[in-house]
Amino acid sequence: MSTVTKHVLVAGGGVAGMEAAGALAELGHRVTLIEKDQKPGGHLKQWHALFPDRRPADEVRKYLSRRIDNRNIKLFTGVSVEKVKKQGHDLHIELSDGSALTADAAIIATGFDLFDARRKEEYGYGIYDNVITSAELEDMFNAGRITTADGRKPSRIGLVHCVGSRDEKVNNNHCSKVCCVTAVKQAVEIRQKLPSCEVFCFYMDMRMYGPYYEELYRESQEVHNVNYIRGKVSEASANINNRLVIKVEDTLAGRPLRMELDMLVLMVGMEMSQAGTRLAEASALGMGINRFLETGDHHYGNNLGHVKGLFYAGTCTAPMNITDTISHARAAVTETVRYLTTR
Amino acid sequence: MEDLYTRLMQDVRFEEGLNACMNCGICTGICPAAEYYHYDPRNVVDLVQTRNNDIIKELLRGETIWYCGQCMSCKTRCPRGNTPGLVIMALRKLSQELGYFTESEKGRQQFAIKRVIGENILRDGYCIASYHVDPKAHPEQGPAWEHYYTYLEDSLARLGGELNGTEGPTRRISSDVLEELKSIFKVTGGQDLYEAIEVASEKKAEEMGLEFRKEGTDFEYFRHVVTADNGNHQTEEEDVRREIYEARR
Amino acid sequence: MKLEGKKRVWAEYQKEIPDDHFFYVRSCIRQTFFAGSEQTFLKIMRDDLGKDVYEDPRHTTCTGIGYHGDVVPFETIQTVVARHFALATEAGYKNIAISCVTSFGIYTEILETWKHFPETLEKTRENLFRATGRVFDLPVSISHASDIIYKFRDEIARKAKYNLVDVSSGKPLKAVEHIGCHYAKMFPKHGIGGAEFPHVLVGMIESWGGDVIDYPERRHCCGFGFRQYLVQANRGYSLSASRKKFESLEPYRPDFIVANCPGCAMFMDRWQYTLKELDGITYGSNETGIPTLTYEEMAGLILGYDPWEMGMQYHNVQSLGLLKKMGIKADPAKRFLTKDGSRLPEPANLLNS
Amino acid sequence: MKGSTGNRFGFTVNRSRLIDYDASDRLVRDYVTLREPSFRLCFACGGCTATCTAGQHAPFNLRRMNTFIRRGEIEPLREEVTRCMLCGKCLLVCPRGVNTRNVVSVAAEAIKKLDRNEL
Q: Which chain A residues are Cβ-neighbours of B77 within 8 angstroms?
C-alpha cells in the first residue's frame, strides 16, 4: 500500500474506468470517478452474455460494482469530463456541469461508441424493420424474446461482420477486433434459443484472435450448425412480404448469391466515443488516424498520454475486449502510481 | 516485354480505380454482369493487383474484361475505395492499343462499336440518332419504334423537331462543328484508337478468312463479330484455363 | 418500412440547384427515342416556370456511349466536354443542365478528375485550344435536368391540372421509380438523396400525389451495359437485367414506371415487348404491360400537356389505361397523326393499346 | 439477321449464375453431413485443393466443391465429384480433420440418390 495518498481523476465509468478506480482505491488513493451516464458500467450494461464462454455479463458487472465499492472512490454520474489542463504539478479538470477540480493525476477511460449503422445506407438500418444491430440483439437476448418487428419467430437470420469497420466509405480503416467473435457468440446463442432458425455469418476474415475464440468458431460449426459465407453483404432490401433480401458474393464459389432473411444483424464496430473526442479536442490530446487516442508509444508506452500525469486506459486507445481492457486499466494504474511516487 | 502494369498506371482511371483489394466481393454481389456472364470483378482486380505481366496479358487477350456493363455499381460500395469498372476501362483501352482485343470473341466486338458508334460521332455528331436505328437490325425496339422510324420526318415534326433542321432534337450538326470534333479526336488520341481497332481487326479478319471492307457494316467480318456466340461465356472455362496456367508456372 | 429513416438520408444529400439561367445539353438517346420529352422539358422551363434555358445548336454528343463502349479515350471525351463548357462560357452561362444521365455521370467524373488530378485539367485546356482555339471557364454548377424539375416540383404541383391519383377511387397511383446508374452511384453526393435512396423522382411523385414502391431490385441496373446492348450477341445481358427488375416489381402491381435516364426509360419499355415476344410474358395488371414514362412526360401530364404531342404513343406499352385513371381525356385515335393532323397508319402489336 | 439463337432477335434471356438460396435445396448437404459429420468442420482453407493431384490436371477444386454442397448448387457438383481420384492426399493436410475423401464419395452417392428421387 502506498504511503502517500494522492487524488486521481478517472474519466469514464465503464469497464476500464471502474477497474482503474478500484485498483487505485485499493492502493489507498483518493479517486474521483466521473461517468456521463446515470449509472456506471458502460456498454457492458447492455450485454447479455460474453464471449467466448457465454458467461452471463452480469458476473463481470457484479465484479466491477464490487471493485468500485470503496470509500476512497467518489462516483459522480450524469456528468462528463470536458477538459484536462496541466497546472503546475497538478491537473486542472473541467466538467460538463461547469464545475472544476484539481487532481494529482488522471486516467482517461472514455471508451468507445458503437458505430452508427445508419451510415451504412445500403443495409437500410433505420428504414427496413428487421435490420438491427448486434447491441439490439443483446437487448432481445436480455428480454428473452427474439422476434421480428411484427412479432414473428424468425426462421433465418443473417449476421454481417465488419459494419463500420475496415471500410473507407465510413472513414474507418481499422478492425474493431471483437465483432467476429461477437457474431459467432450471437450465432450460437440464436441457434440455442431458436433451434429451428438457420443462422448465416457473412464475413471477410474470421479474426478469432483470443483464447478459446477459434474453439468457439469450431464449436459453432460442429455442434450448432452455424453457416458461414465469405463475402461482404452488398445491400439489403425488403420484399412484398416484408422479408429482407440480401445480395452478396459467395467468394468461395466465385458467384453472386441472393437470400431471403427474417432478420439481419449488423455487427457494429467501435469508434472513439464522442465524449472522448470532445475531451481530446478541448485538451489537445493527440489522436491517431483511426481517431482513437494516440499513446506515448504503442509498444511500451501504451497507457501514456503526451501530458505528464495523464494516462489512458481501455478502448479510448483502440478496440479491445473486456479481458484486455481490464489488463490495460491495471497497467494504467501501475503507470499512474509510478508517476505519483517518482514525481 | 514492356511492363503492362506500368502502362496501366499511366491511365488516370486506373490510378483512381485501384487501391488495394481485400477480396470482400461487395462488387460482385451487386454486379449485373456477374449474374449473366462468368464474370467476377473481385477476381479481375485481384489478378491485376498481382502486377504479374503474364496474368495481365492473359486478361488483355481473354474474354473476361469485356463482360462488364460499366454501370459502376461497384464504385458506390467498395470498402477500399476501388472502382473495378474503371480498372476494366483501363484494361480495355490497353487491350485495344496493343491489338490483343481481337484474340477474344467479346473483344473482337470492339470493331463493330467503332464502325457504328465511333463513326456516327464523327460523321453526324451523335453517338446515335433516330436515322441510325434501323428496325430491321433492331427488332427488339418493337412496333412503336418501327412506326416512328418509318414516318420519321412526320413523327419528329409533330414532337417539335425537324429532320435535318438547324436546331432542336437530332438537328443536323454543321460541318464546321464536325471539323472541330475531328480535330479533337486527332489531338487527343481518339483517332489513333480508331485506327488501332481497324488495323488489328483487318488482320484478324484475314487470319479468320473472313471478308473485310474498309468501310460500312455490310460484310462478313462485321456480321461475324456482332452475332458470334460460342456459348461459353457463362461457363467456368476461363477459370479452368487460368488455373491450369497458374499451376504450370 | 420506416419513412423517417429515408427522410434522414434524403436530408443528408441535398445539393445546390440554381434557380435560373441554364445552358442545356441534349442527350443522344433522349432526342432519338423521346424527342418530345426534351421539348417538354424546355416548354415547362420556359413557359410554365419562366426560366431562361439556352441551347447552342453547335453542341454535339458528349461521346459518352463511345466512351463507355471503350472506343473513345478519356482524354478525348474530356476535351469534347470542355468544348461544351467553352460554348457555355462564350454564351455567358455558368449553370449546365444535362438531359442525359450518362452525360451527367461523365461531366461529374471529369470535374472530379480535374479536381483530384489538376494536370488533367491543364492538359485538356491545352488539347481544346490546339484542336479548336477555344478556351473555357469551369461551370459553377452542373445539374441533371431531373434535378431541376425536382427543384420546382412544388411549383409544378401548384399549377397541376392532374395528379398522380386514380380519379375513380381517389387513391394515389403506385409508381416504380428507376434512377440511371450514373446519376449517383459513382458520386453519391452529386445526386439528390444519394445512391441508395435517391429522392429525385420520389420527390416529384410524392409532390404530385403518387405513392412510390420500394422493391428488392430497385437499385439494379436496367441492363443497358453499353456494349452489352450495342452488340446483338450481347443483348441477352441487357434483356435479362431488365427482366430481373420486372420480376421483382411485378408483385406490387405498379401503375407505371418512371425513369430519369433516357436509356433506362427506353429499355424498360422495349424489353417488355421483347419478353412478350420471346417468352410470352406480359407484366402489369391484366397482363397489358406497365407503361414506362420519362420524368418529363410525367411532369407534362401533371401540367396538362397533350400526351400525344409529348410522344407518349411512341412507347411499346401504351398509357391509355394510366391516362384514364388520372382522368386525362386523350383521344387514342389522335395518337398517330402528322403535325397538320393527317392520319398515319396505326402500328400493330402495341401493348396495352 | 438471325443469331445462333434461332429467333428473330438474335438473343435470348441469359441463364443466371446467381446462387439463389431460396430456389435451391440442401438435400445433398444434409445427406453428406449426416453420413460424414466432419464435413461441417471445413473452414475453406484450401489446403485440400492445393495438395490435390487431380486438381493439377483437371478442373477439380475440393474446397469449392464443399461450398457448392453447402449452398445446394447441384449442377456444378455433378461433374466435380467425378474428377476426384480418391487418392486421399487431402486427408493428410486438412487442419480440421475433415474426412475429405469420404465427403466426395458420399456426395457422389447423394447425387445418384437425388436423381432417383431417393433423397
A: 122, 169, 234-235
